[in-house]
């Protein structure tokens, strides 16, 4: 059964029920209709289908027959004519007289209206007689028709049908030629007006709209109910049925006509059949409009349809009725169930259909009865429950109120205890009660309620004591609770304990209950409630008080914790406030939530701004606008900059000059803390340290430099000493050698002179000697002379050396003067140049002068310095000239460049030649005495050594050499204005 | 009950269709112009025409109405009558004989005209060709000219040597008549006889015509086709009998009225056929596309009484040929 019946909505009940009611009826109705309908339809369709086929077949057959009959009729017509003509074609006829023959023909014309003209052709094909309805008769014209097909074909086949032709374009005619019987017989030609076939055709009854028409072998219309089509010489070969038939007829004239649907000349759909009219080779078409042809079929279909519709109608009605009947009881059930469901439990369903529905109704009734009983039962139970619940509600409310009190005064226990005690006493239906705390040693009353005055008086000022066997004792002992049903009979009372007795006599308590306040296992307090009457406390009341006890414990704990927290908070606050660094805490928004005094003071933020607890962005903007980060800074820029540097720490200078270090530390859970430290002092210390360090470095560098100088000076000193000692030595040697050398020189030159004298003197004697002796003597004398000359030469050389050596050791002459260095140098240069040219005519060198601005005179020994310069110049000349001799590169010009500079502290003279240069290993030995690179005989090797002495020892300057082998050599002489070395 | 409604609707639709089919178009007007007295009730041609209309499903007064105008033989009245008819705006005008057709053609404008009894409409200029007339005229031809030869031959069979054969010609049918005269002269040549044309336009000229024939000494008369002669058939027959002239007419009504013989198509048949032309035109066919019919059946009518009165023995060959023999 439809479950929806029972769950019909109560609001608008009627409509809901009605809606559902329809559904079932509709369902069944539809089911029946569908069932019957399907059967009917299927049946009708099958029957109709078969009858259709049969009808169609019979129709087609009928068409066939009609076509055939039409063809036969036409054939008959033609046959009739032939028969008629046949009267005149028997063998003897032509032998008859002209009158007879004419008479026969006239009679034939009379009998056969179709024939318009009769012509007699003789055996040779010549026209003998012509009788016509229209034209005049012609006799014996002898016109030759022997080659006409009428004659030839007729003679060949016995009969010939001419093609259809039109007289005056509108009258169809055909010639029928029949050969006469007999030997050499002629042919009778009849002109037949085919319009008379029209009568035959129109005479054909083919249904109402059907008709027949005849076409010749070319598809030209010969006969048609609408004569005007014929007269118009209509060509129907375009019609598909005509074309097809002509084609098939051409192939096989005896083939059975097919029946097809096609379009007639007027364009309507028709059922067409054709048959051949054999002798003339025509085709007759019988066409029935499709509508008419199939009219019976349509009628049959229509009938079937009507019957079907009627059947369906009947089925629908029957179905409706049946469905209604079926669903009646169901609806009754539905309504009754709705009523019962709505609450009318006394209603009984009344159905007597004698089937399952009745059983169901009975069950519904039973269900209603059961419902009634159970309802009554329920009501009773509900009442009980309600009573219980209201009690529980009271207790809950009390508990809630207590909790509210706890919430509203955290930490303050007094109101809590009060409230708790008041509620506890009330709910446990006690008269009075006490709430005590226990600190480990004794109980202290925290709240009292309803204490009778005498007892209260007794209690005041007295510590709370208890005796064993009393409630508190029991609690202390660990009991869950301690109750005394009747104090009067309690042993402790009877024993005369004063406290108990006071309770009983002054307080009037008869029943008592003590509930412990335990935090975990430790006792922290106690509830005591008393009744003046003997009525034991119920489990529920005990439980209630235990509940309150627990809450009291919680409240006490809360208070304690809160206290602790407050203490900590205070400590933290002090720490925070007194920190040396400024701290600002931002939550995850980020918004400023906490800061300390130092922060405020460091950044100079007024209270008002801080109190607003702005967001980080606002705070930055405020600071920027105030000029915190410098003038003309864009707040958004600044914000972005800070945001980029989250997590780092950086330093910056405040407008007031203080340097602060800002550290950004993220906080777990979002947000961050900014820590500001005033590092101005630190910075300053750092700077001082840096300065000190720099100074120390500077000093160390200076010391290093001095050390290096010292080393150099030391070397120089050693060198100078060496040189000095060497100088002294050489001077000594030179002195000693000088004399002997003189002797040698003098005596050598003397010897030369003496030898010359000898030769002169001995000349005459030599003349007497023989050639050979004379030669030998010449040789010897020559040899002697050259040797002596050599001795002289060498002696001079040794002399020169001694002189140089003496010069070398002469030391300082002490003649110092202030000179213009440029002038000195220039003069020396000229001297050197001309001296070199004097020695060697081919000597050529390019001189370059680069004299600096050395206006200030310098004090030095001009002679010695000139000697030095001369030495350098001659070295330069020598090197350049030597290179030019061996130099292969084109464009090489020996050049000597002299440069002078004044450095204030001294002057510098550079002499640069572009000679062969000095290899590195020789450079060190350059200034050693007697060291020379010149070949033997040239130079003493003392030049540079002496120069070195003069410059360094006499003048305290320096002389250095720089050279690139194969490119240049440059000597640099510096002469200080202030000598740092003591004169030797 | 949707199905029921559907059925009702279906049934109604079919009934409607049937009803519609049964009904024809609203009443159409047909004009009839005649060149001779033509009583709609008694005239056989007109009754044949009306019969033909009935056979094609027209009920006079319901879906067709015919307006008759006849000139009673007076050809001068024809143009006015034609105009009158044309003014009524008929759907089609039926008329016969060359003069009436000409008048109708001139007055009708675009109104289709069915020509009944015209000899050679192409030669006269009423149509372009038999198969395809073109224009607004169509109808039936009576091949009057083509039959002339035969008529003459037959006449000469009855009166072998008439001396000369008079040919009565109606000047109103000038074109047709010219054709017929042509044919007649050719036939006469073949037959070896002499023709004498006599012009008779109406009843007033009959006496004079016959006087002329008598003067010429012709004992045979060939009467050309013209409605005027049918109009005066009685007088014509009488006069022929009076003058003892064997006459060959073209219309058997004259033979019925006492003429000797006639040979030609049956005019009733032609008027009957004319109804089909009217039907076609009323259904919307164009006269230009309706071919002009030629007669198929030709009647030879012989009045034996008249023959006896003339003292002529009708030869068997004629009698055999004759379709109508009036005793």
Question: Would you give an account of this structure?
Answer:
The complex is a heterodimer of chains A (984) and B (327). Chain A has 25 helices and 29 strands. With 984 residues, chain A is an alpha+beta fold. Chain A is flat, with a radius of gyration of 81 Å. With 327 residues, chain B is α/β, with parallel strands linked by helices. A 7-stranded mixed beta sheet of chain B has the order 7-6-8-9-10-11-12, sandwiched between helices. A 5-stranded parallel beta sheet of chain B has the order 2-1-3-4-5, sandwiched between helices. In chain B, strand 3 (92-96), helix 4 (98-108) and strand 4 (113-118) form a beta-alpha-beta unit. The mean pLDDT of chain B is 84. Chain A binds chain B through residues 99, 102-103, 106-107, 109-110, 113, 132-137, 166-171, 193, 195-196, 227-228, 231-233, 306, 309, 312-313, 316, and chain B through 3-4, 7, 129-132, 143, 146-147, 149-150, 152-153, 187, 190-191, 280, 285, 289-294, 296-298, 316-317, 320-321, 323.
Summarize the structure.
The complex is a heterodimer of chains A (984) and B (327). Chain A has 984 residues and is of the alpha+beta class.
Labels describing this entry:
heterodimer, A: 984 residues, alpha+beta, seven-stranded antiparallel sheet, 25 helices, 18% strand, disordered N terminus, disordered C terminus, B: 327 residues, alpha/beta, Rossmann fold, 2 domains, seven-stranded mixed sheet, five-stranded parallel sheet
């Amino acid at each position: 059964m439809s479950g929806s019946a029972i769950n019909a909505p109560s609001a608008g009940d009627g409509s809901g029920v009605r809606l559902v009611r329809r559904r079932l009826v509709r369902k069944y109705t539809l089911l029946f209709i569908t069932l019957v309908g399907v059967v009917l339809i299927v049946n009708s369709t099958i029957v109709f289908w078969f009858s259709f086929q049969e009808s169609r077949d019979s129709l087609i057959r009928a068409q066939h027959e009609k076509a055939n009959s039409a063809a036969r009729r036409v054939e008959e017509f033609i046959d009739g004519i032939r028969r008629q003509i046949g009267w005149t074609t028997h063998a003897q006829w032509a032998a008859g007289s002209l009158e007879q023959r004419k008479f026969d023909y006239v009679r034939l014309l009379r009998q056969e209206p179709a024939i318009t003209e009769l012509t007699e052709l003789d055996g040779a094909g010549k026209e003998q007689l012509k009788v016509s309805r229209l034209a005049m008769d012609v006799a014996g014209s002898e016109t030759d028709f022997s080659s006409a097909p009428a004659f030839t074909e007729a003679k060949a086949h016995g009969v010939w049908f001419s093609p259809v032709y039109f007289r005056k374009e509108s009258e169809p005619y055909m010639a029928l030629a029949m050969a006469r019987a007999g030997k050499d017989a002629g042919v009778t030609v009849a002109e037949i007006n085919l319009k008379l076939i029209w009568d035959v055709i129109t005479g054909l009854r083919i249904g109402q709209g059907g008709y027949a028409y005849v076409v010749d072998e070319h598809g030209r219309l010969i006969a048609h109910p609408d004569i005007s089509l014929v007269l118009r010489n209509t060509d129907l070969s375009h019609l598909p049925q005509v074309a097809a038939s002509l084609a098939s007829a051409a192939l096989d004239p005896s083939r059975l006509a097919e029946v097809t649907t096609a379009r007639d000349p007027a364009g309507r759909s028709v059922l067409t059949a054709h048959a051949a009219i054999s002798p003339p080779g025509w085709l007759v078409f019988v066409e029935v409009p499709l509508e008419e042809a199939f009219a019976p079929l349509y009628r049959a279909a229509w009938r079937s349809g009507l019957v079907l519709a009627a059947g369906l109608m009947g089925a629908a009605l029957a179905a409706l009725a049946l469905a209604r009947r079926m669903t009646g009881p169901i609806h009754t059930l539905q309504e009754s169930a709705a009523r019962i469901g709505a609450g009318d439990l006394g209603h009984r369903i009344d159905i007597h259909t004698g089937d399952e529905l009745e059983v169901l109704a009975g069950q519904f009734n039973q269900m209603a009865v059961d419902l009634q009983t159970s309802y009554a039962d329920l009501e009773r139970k509900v009442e009980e429950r309600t009573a219980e619940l209201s009690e529980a509600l009271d207790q809950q409310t009390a508990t809630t109120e207590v909790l509210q009190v706890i919430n509203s005064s955290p930490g303050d226990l007094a109101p809590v205890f009060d409230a708790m005690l008041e509620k506890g006493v009330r709910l446990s239906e006690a008269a009075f009660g006490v709430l005590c705390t226990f600190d480990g040693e004794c109980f202290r009353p925290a709240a009292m309620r309803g204490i009778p005055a005498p007892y209260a008086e007794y209690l005041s000022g007295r510590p709370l004591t208890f005796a064993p066997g009393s409630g508190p004792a029991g609690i202390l002992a660990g009991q869950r609770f301690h109750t005394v049903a009747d104090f009067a009979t309690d042993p402790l009372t009877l024993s005369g304990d004063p406290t108990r007795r006071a309770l009983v006599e002054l307080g009037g308590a008869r029943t008592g209950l003590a509930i412990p306040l335990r935090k975990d296992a430790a006792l922290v307090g106690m509830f005591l409630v008393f009744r003046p009457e003997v009525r034991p406390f119920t489990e529920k009341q005990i439980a209630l008080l235990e509940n309150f006890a627990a809450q009291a414990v919680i409240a006490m704990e809360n208070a304690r914790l809160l206290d602790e927290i407050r203490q900590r908070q205070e400590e933290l606050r002090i720490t925070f406030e007194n920190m040396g660094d400024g701290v600002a805490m931002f939550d995850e928004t980020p918004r400023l939530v906490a800061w300390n005094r130092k922060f405020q003071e460091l950044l100079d933020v007024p209270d008002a701004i801080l109190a607003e607890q702005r967001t980080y962005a606002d705070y930055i903007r405020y600071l920027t606008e105030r000029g915190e980060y410098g003038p003309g800074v864009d707040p958004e820029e600044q914000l972005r900059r800070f945001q980029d540097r989250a997590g780092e720490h950086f330093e910056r200078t405040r407008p007031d000059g203080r340097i602060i270090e800002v550290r950004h530390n993220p906080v777990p859970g979002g947000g961050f803390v900014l820590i500001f430290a005033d590092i101005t002092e630190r910075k300053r210390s750092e700077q001082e340290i840096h300065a000190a360090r720099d100074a120390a470095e500077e000093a160390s560098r200076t010391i290093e430099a001095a050390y290096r100088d010292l080393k150099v000076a030391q070397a120089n000193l050693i060198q100078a000493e060496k040189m000095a000692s060497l100088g002294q030595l050489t001077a000594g040697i030179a002195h000693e050698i000088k004399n002997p050398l003189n002797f040698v020189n003098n005596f050598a030159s003397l010897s030369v002179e003496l030898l010359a004298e000898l030769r002169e003197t001995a000349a005459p004697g030599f003349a007497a000697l023989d050639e050979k002796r004379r030669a030998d003597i010449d040789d010897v004398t020559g040899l002697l002379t050259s040797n002596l000359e050599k001795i002289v030469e060498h002696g001079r050389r040794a002399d020169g050396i001694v002189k140089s050596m003496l010069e070398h050791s002469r030391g300082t002459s002490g003649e110092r003067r202030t000179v213009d260095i440029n002038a000195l140098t220039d003069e020396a240069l000229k001297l050197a140049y001309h001296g070199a040219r004097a020695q060697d005519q081919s000597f050529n060198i390019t001189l370059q002068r680069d004299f600096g601005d050395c206006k200030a005179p310098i004090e030095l020994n001009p002679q010695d310095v000139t000697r030095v310069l001369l030495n350098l110049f001659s070295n330069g000349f020598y090197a350049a000239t030597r290179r030019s001799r061996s130099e292969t590169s084109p464009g090489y010009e020996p050049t000597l460049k002299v440069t002078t500079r004044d450095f204030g502290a001294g002057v510098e003279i550079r002499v640069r030649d572009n000679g062969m240069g000095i290899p590195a290993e020789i450079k060190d030995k350059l200034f050693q005495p007697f060291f020379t690179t010149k070949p033997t005989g040239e130079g003493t090797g003392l030049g540079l050594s002496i120069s070195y002495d003069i410059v360094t020892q006499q003048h305290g300057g320096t002389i250095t050499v720089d050279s690139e082998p194969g490119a240049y050599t440059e000597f640099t002489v510096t002469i200080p204005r202030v000598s740092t070395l003591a004169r030797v | 009950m949707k199905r029921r409604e559907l059925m009702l609707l279906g049934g109604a639709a079919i009934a409607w269709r049937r009803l519609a089919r049964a009904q024809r178009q609203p009443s159409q007007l047909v004009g009839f112009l005649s060149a001779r007295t033509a009583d709609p009730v008694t005239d056989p041609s007109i009754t044949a025409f009306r019969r033909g209309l009935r056979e094609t499903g027209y009920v006079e007064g319901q879906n067709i109405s015919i307006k008759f105008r006849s000139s009673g033989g007076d050809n001068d009245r024809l143009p006015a009558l034609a105009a009158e008819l044309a003014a009524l705006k008929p759907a089609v005008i039926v008329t016969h004989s060359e003069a009436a057709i000409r008048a109708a053609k001139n007055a009708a404008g675009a109104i289709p005209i069915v020509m009944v009894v015209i000899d050679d409409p192409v030669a006269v200029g009423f149509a372009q060709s038999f198969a395809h007339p073109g224009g607004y005229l169509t109808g039936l031809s009576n091949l009057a000219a083509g039959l002339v030869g035969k008529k003459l031959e037959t006449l000469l069979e009855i009166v072998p040597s008439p001396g000369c054969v008079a040919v009565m010609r109606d000047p109103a049918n000038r074109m047709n008549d010219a054709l017929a005269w042509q044919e007649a002269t050719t036939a006469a040549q073949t037959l070896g006889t002499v023709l004498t044309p006599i012009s008779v336009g109406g009843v007033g000229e009959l006496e004079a015509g016959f006087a002329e024939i008598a003067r010429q000494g012709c004992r045979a008369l060939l009467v050309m086709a013209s409605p005027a002669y049918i109009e005066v058939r009685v007088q014509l027959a009488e006069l022929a009998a009076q003058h003892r002239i064997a006459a060959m007419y073209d219309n058997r009504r004259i033979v019925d009225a006492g003429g000797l013989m006639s040979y030609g198509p049956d005019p009733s048949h032609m008027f009957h056929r004319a109804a089909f032309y009217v039907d076609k035109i009323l259904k919307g066919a164009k006269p230009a596309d309706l071919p002009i019919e030629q007669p198929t059946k030709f009647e030879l009518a012989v009045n034996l009484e008249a023959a006896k009165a003339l003292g002529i023995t009708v030869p068997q060959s004629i009698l055999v040929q004759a379709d109508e023999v009036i005793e």
